[in-house]
Design brief:
heterodimer; A: about 180 residues; alpha/beta; five-stranded parallel β-sheet; three-stranded antiparallel β-sheet; globular; B: about 325 residues; four-stranded parallel β-sheet; 11 helices; about 40% helix
Amino acid sequence: MPIVMDADRIGRTLTRIAHEIVERNKGVEDIALIGVRRRGVPIAKRLARFIADITSHDVPTGALDITMYRDDVSRHAVGLQPLVRRTEVSFSIDDRKILLVDDVLYTGRTTRAALDALIDFGRPKAIQLVVLVDRGHRELPIRADYVGKNIPTAPTDVVHVRVQEIDDRDEVELVSGGAA
Amino acid sequence: MTTQQVEPAEQVTSLRRKDLLGIEELSAEEITLVLDTAEAMKEIGSRTIKKVPALRGKTVVNLFFEPSTRTRTSFEIAEKRLSADTLNIAIGTSSVVKGETLVDTALTLEAMAPDMIVLRHQSSGAGHLLSRICKSAIINAGDGTHEHPTQALLDAFTIRERKGRLAGLKVAIIGDLVHSRVLRSNLHLLTKMGAETWVCAPPTLVPPEMRRFGVVVTSVVEEAVRDADVVMLLRIQLERMEGAYFSSLREYSTVFGMTEERLRLAKPDVIIMHPGPMTRGVEISSEVADGPYSVILDQVSNGVAVRMAVLYLLAGGADHEEAA
């Protein structure tokens, strides 16, 4: 089961993305990071720390649960529903540039759901998408503004992103479809 | 074949059932699932736009054969927050007045294919009857003296919110035990979740099967309240009583009513609960009902979150029938 990114690589990648964010937005006074649950959240928090290291500015960070906005609620054949977790966005998103942070970008449907959820919260000035991994196979016209690594995959493959905060280690593993 | 990155480890089996008819048939895991889901639902109520599209396009019928304010509006708000289409059937103005049976009413509705029916009926087991006939998911909002599962779930949610847990707490339930479906649901839930449960009422209002629940039964209210973490009061249901269960309401309130003085016997961080509607001055004094230990209004707002959780979890299960 190939490890496509190890802990060091992930660390360097996030540092690079943090610098890109600061550069492209010409400073960070009006931005906020919102991680998409689950693993987008610790990634967003790490980015906030790196940005604080670079700019000495604390960027507000929140967590978004998009389960209620998915387009496949109640379509699971055997009644499986993903567990709903809390959304925590304690600041106003109006007139801010929101950086949505997720671990993997695949079909784009999660991002679509996250956009709907955000719009219900307010009217951001802009929304940019940050992903650690882009694995292709988009089903909607969605693209990421900042990508950690592009990983070509087959539709039967599974990409596992593990983060220290939840899984006790940092790695990105690509499991090919035949195996599962 | 999900098209989104949902890790298998995070998928939790929904309530693997078509209906929610009672707490008796739920496992502790299912109860915990409802409570955890309700926490996320509660957050939606604090937003400016209190709506999520989860049940968009689903039709939910609120079929209430008995009067209700808080339960019906609570369900209605819950349904609307999930973007479902709601239909309220007020029995007084329906054909039931002309003598249409429960079964015929339900079959007529079924022909219009509602996804879920929330049913309150004066006969115990009405939900079970409906479940056998209707493909819709049935949520029991109170059937006779049998169960009122969403009430017990919102009570548990409120207790867990305040105390962090249910296991090991001393919960004292005081009031009309014989006619209370809220009691039965709460007893099932509290015993399943490991709470030390005491029930207290005049002997005439203690049903014989209390023993089988494994709860402590007493007719001395001070014993029930002493060192209690939670005190739950139940209304004396005069409308259900035909015999003389006690000599007068005033005697009941003197001997059993929850007053500030009696409450001092409980733990210093005790919480006071009541499913409503209250009869102030009978089972509970106004000072206690409005006092600092009362979480009665929290129960009401938690009711919406818990009902949203139930609706959401059952909506996933509805398609389960077709696949099976």
